[in-house]
Amino acid sequence: TRSAAKDIGAILADIEAEVRAENDWGNVASYIPELADIRPNQFAMSVCTAAGETVSTGDAMTRFSIQSVSKVFTLALALGRHGDLLWRRVGKEPSGNPFNSIIQLEVENGTPRNPFVNAGAIVTTDAILEGRKPRDTLAEILRFIRSAAEDDDIWINDRVARSEERTGDRNYAIAHFLRSCGNLRGECALVLGTYFHHCAIEMTCVQLARAGRFLCSAFGDQRLIPTERVRSINALMMTCGHYDGSGEFAYRVGFPGKSGVGGGILAVVPNVASIAVWSPGLNDFGNSKQGTRALERLSERTGWSVFA
Ligand code: GLN
C-alpha cells in the first residue's frame, strides 16, 4: 500500500503539472466579492485511500468555500432524520437546468427535482432545521463534517454567509415559492440563513477528502451513516451532482461527485477512494473547470470508474 500511495502521489503531481501547463482556468464566481476576488490559477487535489493514507498535490492546505458541496452533508443529515419520507418533498431526478433555476418548481408543484439543486437543498435544510434553532442546526452540520473529517478545525466564514444573504434574492424567490406550495415549514429567512451559512463552510482539500470517506463504505465510518444510505447518496451525486453538467461529468469522470461554485468538488470511488479537488475557475455549468479536468485525468490514469 505504501507503493500504491507513492503511485497516486506521482499521478497527482503529473495531473497538477498538466493542469498548470494547460493554463485555462475558467472564471471565478462573480456574485459575491469573497469569491470574485479569488485568484483563478490555483489548484489542489487530495485522495484518501482505503489503506488510510491521504495523498495531495498543490494548495491542499488552502481553505476554500465549499458552497454546494455542503449539500452532500445536509442530505446525509436529512436522510438520517427523516429516512425515505424526505422523498415526499424532493425528487431524485437530474434537472437538466442550472443550479439556481426556478422554472421547474411551478410546473412540478413545488417539489424540487433533486436535493442538489438550490431548491432541493433549501428543502433538505428545512428538513433538518424543523423544530430546532438555526444555530443548533449549523452546529449539527459542523459536528457531522468535523467527525467525518476527524478534524475540528473546520469553520463557517461569516462574511461569506453575509454576502450570500445580501445577494440571495433568487434563493429567496425559490424559498418563498416553496413555502407557497406548502413545501417549506420554517420561515424563509431562518431556512435561508441556515442554508447560506452551510454554503459558507470553508475546508481545505485534505479536510474535504477526509470528510468524504463516510461515502466509501469499505473504509468510511459506519457510525455516521449506514451502507444503504451511502449507496443512495452516491447515486444522487452521480446523476445530479453537477447540475446540467451531470451527464458530461458521468461520461468523462465515471464516478460520483458534487461540485460547488467555490470551485471545490468532492468525488467518491466507492470502496476505493475519497477525492477532493479545488480550482476556483468555473466552466459554463458553474462547476470547477480544472477540477473536472483533473478528475477526468485521474480516472484515465487509475482506471477508476463505477462503469467498468
Ligand atoms: N451559495 C450558492 C447559491 O446558493 C451555492 C451554489 C453552488 O455552489 N452551486 O447560489
UniProtKB/TrEMBL annotation:
It holds the Pfam family Glutaminase. Substrate binds at residues 68, 118, 164, 171, 195, 243, 261. It is an enzyme of class 3 (hydrolase). Signal peptide: none annotated. The keyword Hydrolase applies. One of its GO terms (molecular function) is glutaminase activity. Keywords: Acetylation, Hydrolase. It comes from the Bacteria. The keyword DNA damage does not apply. GO terms for biological process: glutamate biosynthetic process; L-glutamine catabolic process. Homotetramer. Belongs to the glutaminase family. This is Glutaminase. It comes from Thermohalobaculum xanthum. The lineage of its organism: Bacteria, Pseudomonadati, Pseudomonadota, Alphaproteobacteria, Rhodobacterales. The gene is glsA.
